[in-house]
Write a structure and sequence with these properties.
Family: Belongs to the triosephosphate isomerase family.
Structural class: alpha/beta
Enzyme class: isomerase
Number of helices: 11
Distance between the termini: 19 Å
Order of helices and strands: EHEHEHEHHEHHEHHEHEH
CATH topology: TIM Barrel
Number of domains: 1
Strand order of the largest sheet: 7-6-5-4-3-2-1-8
Keywords: Gluconeogenesis, Glycolysis, Isomerase, Lyase
GO molecular function: methylglyoxal synthase activity; triose-phosphate isomerase activity
CATH class: Alpha Beta
Number of strands: 8
Helix content: 25-40%
Largest sheet: 8 strands, parallel
CATH superfamily: Aldolase class I
CATH architecture: Alpha-Beta Barrel
Shape: globular
EC number: 5.3.1.1
Length: 247
């Protein structure tokens, strides 16, 4: 089965009206591979600005959401609000949310369920820390994360899985293509054994962790790498090269 290449630019807590406007202008005028689905995950306060200025061929994602439609939850935004403002996607379970803000597998699973109830696509992150990698428990960690996600998914057509090598994020050094391919193949096998072969074959599994313009092509050539979630690099001109990694 052919899976459409998927690239998400995760702007994290970066940008201003001026710099985001310049970035959007670059994206809107760039020559991009038409066979790639591109999503920009903007900071919440700039979501509507981004959606209003970005070419409709791009989708826009929120970087997080809460688990109820509304209420006394200061600082949170709900999937209903995200949808109401014209966004199609939300990023959930990012390593930042897991390891800085202490979000558990169970909590991230609840977020997945609520986002899907509101017809949002979810880009849901999985991955191990350096400590977990060194202990040799990568598979155990990722499979536990996967179970919490799978238990809450109603529509796999609106799910993109993002493997983040937590120990590579922000270092400038991506995990090797061989390592990433091995992890992605294990995730696909887990899906085959625990969800269905059809889902295993169709769901897109993308990679995040210091993806750069000069390393993305070798990663993109791997059988089970269906795209990227890009942090720092998505704020730079090289994001165009990453989008065009398979061109």
């Amino acid at each position: 089965m052919t899976r459409k290449f998927f690239v998400c630019g995760n702007w994290k807590m970066n940008g201003s009206k001026k710099s985001i406007g310049e970035l959007i202008q670059t994206l809107n005028t760039a020559k991009l591979d038409p066979n790639v689905e591109v999503v920009c995950a903007a900071p919440a306060i700039y979501l509507e600005l981004t959606r209003s200025k970005l070419d409709p061929k791009f989708s826009v994602a929120a970087q997080n959401c809460y688990i109820v439609p509304s209420g006394g939850f200061t600082g949170e935004i709900s999937p209903a609000m995200i949808k109401d403002c014209g966004m199609d996607w939300v990023v959930l379970g990012h390593s930042t949310r897991r390891h800085i803000f202490g979000e558990s597998n169970e909590f991230i699973g609840q977020k997945v369920a609520h986002a899907q109830e509101n017809d949002l696509g979810v880009i849901v992150c999985i991955g191990e820390t350096r400590e977990e990698k060194e202990k040799g428990i990568t598979d155990q960690v990722i499979f536990a994360q996967m179970k919490a996600i799978a238990d809450n998914v109603k529509d796999w057509n609106k799910v993109v899985l993002a493997y983040e090598a937590g120990w590579a994020i922000g270092t400038g050094n991506a995990a090797s293509p061989q390592h990433v391919q091995q992890i992605h193949a294990k995730v696909r096998e887990w899906l085959k054994n625990n969800v269905s072969e059809a889902v295993a074959n169709s769901v897109r599994i993308i990679y995040g962790g210091s993806v750069r313009g000069d390393t993305c092509r070798e990663l993109a050539a791997q059988k089970d790498i269906d795209g990227f979630i890009v942090g720092k690099g998505s704020l730079k001109p090289e994001f165009i090269d990453i989008i065009n990694a398979k061109a």
